[in-house]
Specification:
32 strands, eleven-stranded mixed β-sheet, elongated, about 5% helix, mainly beta, 1 helix
């Protein structure tokens, strides 16, 4: 189905095999690839790239400069702010004997479920195999990094400049303060809360845990330790 002139910007390119729903707006210089599927009432703003075989649900908004790599799956009511990149290669390299690195191919994809909002310049890498998944209701601030094979649980929120390393599973309803980081290959329980600049290097097993510091320790333990730090500083 073609986009009417009223809903189509200048110099945008829509491949013939792409299918667009009703009342879809496509902005200037946007690109929609082969066999892409765009649902109803979506807004594809200026200079957005939607790659081949991408699936997009209904009522989505992609702000200028969003890039969605081939094979990504986007649910309903998703908002991607300017500069978001979905489906770029994960950071994977194998060392060679001569000290150089061989790139590890990533053949998976990214799945963004319903009601997700990603802030400006946030990136979600595709998986090495399988899928990187951002579950329903997740809200990520600007400049967040979700690495390959990560799974972010439903209704988790993450403030700016935070990152999750590869293959980590973050639970549901977690609250992650700004500039926090997670090591790879760990599991974080539901309803975990991190203060700003917290570094999590091992799995969090108890739901509802509040953590602070690097390496992350329970919030009350950190505050007791900080009282000692302050006292020693006065001596």
């Amino acid at each position: 189905k073609r986009v009417s002139r009223r809903h189509r910007g200048l110099f945008c390119r829509i491949r013939l095999s792409a299918k667009l729903g009703r009342k879809v707006y496509v902005g200037d210089f946007a690109y929609i690839g082969r066999k892409a599927r765009i649902g109803d009432n979506c807004r594809i703003m200026e200079q957005v790239y939607v790659g081949d075989n991408v699936q997009v649900g209904n009522n989505c908004t992609f702000y200028p400069g969003v890039k969605i790599y081939p094979g990504s799956i986007i649910g309903n009511n998703v908002i991607l702010h300017a500069g978001v990149v979905i489906g770029s290669d994960g950071f994977g390299f194998a060392p060679r004997e001569d000290g150089s690195y061989r790139k590890i191919e990533h053949t998976g994809n990214v799945i963004i479920e319903d009601d997700v909002e990603l802030g400006a310049n946030t990136t979600v890498d595709k998986s090495q195999m399988g899928s990187t998944i951002v579950h329903r209701g997740v809200k990520l601030d600007n400049l967040c990094q979700i690495a390959h094979n990560v799974e972010v649980g439903a209704n988790t929120v993450m403030a700016a400049q935070s990152g999750i390393a590869g293959s980590t599973k973050v639970g549901e309803n977690c609250i992650i303060g700004g500039q926090s980081g997670f090591a790879g290959h760990i599991t974080v329980a539901d309803k975990t809360t991190l203060a700003a600049k917290t570094g999590v290097i091992s799995s969090v097993k108890e739901p509802g845990t509040v953590l602070m510091g690097y390496p992350a320790i329970p919030f009350r333990d950190y505050m007791r330790s900080y009282a000692i730090f302050k006292q020693n500083g006065k001596e």
